[in-house]
Each structure stands twice: as C-alpha cells, then as structure tokens.
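2024-03-11 09:14:02 INFO worker-7 job=invfold-0412 stage=load source=structure_tokens
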C-alpha cells in the first residue's frame, strides 16, 4: 500500500510567543511512503539510503515500525525559520501511517513530530493548522482576525536552529520576563482583533529576537522596513533569518515593496495565506 500526506509550513514565536506560538502557512511538504526492504528517500530526482539517525527515517519508523521508501516534494525553504523540518516529519509520518493502514490519526502524528523536533510549536501548527499555542501538555487553537494579511521575507542565507538557540542566554532577569508576558498578552489580543495599538505593544522581543540580532542583521532591517511601510506587527519567523509581517490588504503591497527593497536579489518576499487545514 502507498500512503500520501502533506503538511504546511509554519512561523513560530511571532515575537514574544517564544517556543509557544506558531502559525501555519500555505507552503507545503508532500510525502509518499511505501513499504520497502530498506529505508530510502527520493527527493529532487535522486535516491539515497537513510541512516537510522535521519529524521525522515525516524519519522517513518516511528509511524510504521518498518522500513519505507519515502518520496518528498517540499515547497518550504529549509533552515530559514519556516518550519520545514516539522512539515517534513509530519508529512512523512502521516504518509507512513497511511501506508501501514493506520491513516488519519493526527494525535499520533503530532506525538511523533513533537518527539523528533523536541518542541511543540511548529509541530502543532504543521499537524493542526491555523494559529496555535502549544506546550508539552496541551494545544490551544487561537483566533486570527480575517482582515490580517501575512507577508514573509526569506533571505537566501541559512540559519540553523541550533546556532540560533546557542545565542540565547541561560537565564533572564525578572524585568525581561514580565515585559515578555505583557507583550505576549498584547500579541494574542492584537492578532484576534487586528487592533493596531495592541500589536504595537507586542513588538521588541527580548527573549530571543534581541539576543539573536547579530546573527542575522538583515532580519531586523526587514522588520523595520515592514513597520515603516505600515505593517501592524513584524517579527523573526522562528529562528530566522526570515521575517514575518502582519498587515492589511490595503497596505500589503507597500509592505512587500519595502521588504523587497531591503532584500534585493538576496532572497524573496512572499504573500502567504494562513493554512487552516494542517496535515492532509
């Protein structure tokens, strides 16, 4: 039996929602899986055997308990802060479950993705779609006002999640913690209501954006350009270097232009829809 599944890209953190918030976006990774004698992967026209430590192999084995031949087609830019790894693992696990006759169990796929990825935010968005808050013990779907439009600016440079995490301090002072909690409250309410005042209070993250600023200066430049063009909120997308902006339909063209001027030929700016379906 051959199984097929797809999962969306996602933008995590969204500013102050560090390791908690994520939003599913309309780029997809599609995987097919079929039983095989050995674990193999076909992608981009080439096929290779997978080692036991490979995430694709781990996702397939955890889902099906046996070797699989996996074929991947991935629209999500890799190592750019758009949840490519979570989308790949979710699509592979979903396809392997279907190939094994056990399709449709989103909770099982979510557990696999969270276990492999090590945190819940991108995993929840990739599997369940929409705007989510996720912890190790729970998931909450959140509301996003329908007037808000999403723009992402994707630099060509890669920034590995491990490198970005290593830039973070081991401890934070009480003031940073209290200001971050306030920003998160304003962000959730601002995204729910599209209230410009609330979203203005949500910017300036100190938990991860400030410590990572020297790793990717262009991310901060993209955020500033988006705000200058009228975006209601702008943030690092995941661990970067992609920047995400929330704007209105009327201002979206100006925001795209401003971010494109910063990137020049060094990347691309995309207007993306929110993916409300998650794993398919």
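2024-03-11 09:14:09 INFO worker-7 stage=emit residues=280
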């Amino acid at each position: 039996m051959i199984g097929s599944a797809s999962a969306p890209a996602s933008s995590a953190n969204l500013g102050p929602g560090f390791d908690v918030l994520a939003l599913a976006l309309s780029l997809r990774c599609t995987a097919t899986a079929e039983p095989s004698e050995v674990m193999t992967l076909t992608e981009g026209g080439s096929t290779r055997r997978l080692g036991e430590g490979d995430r694709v192999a781990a996702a397939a084995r955890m889902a099906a308990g046996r070797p699989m031949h996996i074929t991947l087609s991935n629209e999500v830019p890799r190592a750019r802060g758009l949840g490519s790894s979570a989308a790949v693992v979710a699509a592979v696990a979903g396809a392997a479950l279907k190939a094994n006759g056990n399709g449709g169990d989103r909770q099982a796929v979510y557990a696999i993705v969270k276990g492999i990825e090590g945190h819940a935010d991108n995993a929840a968005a990739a599997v369940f779609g929409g705007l989510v808050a996720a912890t190790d013990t729970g998931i909450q779907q959140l509301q996003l006002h329908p007037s808000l439009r999403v723009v992402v600016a994707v630099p060509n440079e890669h920034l590995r999640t491990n490198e970005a995490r290593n830039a973070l301090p081991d401890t934070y002072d009480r003031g940073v913690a209290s200001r971050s909690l306030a920003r998160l409250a304003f962000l959730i309410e601002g995204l729910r209501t599209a209230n410009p005042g609330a979203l203005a209070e949500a910017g300036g993250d100190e938990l991860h954006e400030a410590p990572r600023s020297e790793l990717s200066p262009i991310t901060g430049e993209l955020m500033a350009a988006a705000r200058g063009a009228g975006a209601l909120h702008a943030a690092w997308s995941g661990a970067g270097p992609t920047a995400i902006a929330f704007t209105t339909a009327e201002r979206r063209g100006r925001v795209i232009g401003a971010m494109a001027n910063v990137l020049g030929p060094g990347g691309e700016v995309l207007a993306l829809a929110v993916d409300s379906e998650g794993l398919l």
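2024-03-11 09:14:09 INFO worker-7 stage=report msg="The chain has two domains: 3-141, 144-272."
2024-03-11 09:14:10 INFO worker-7 job finished
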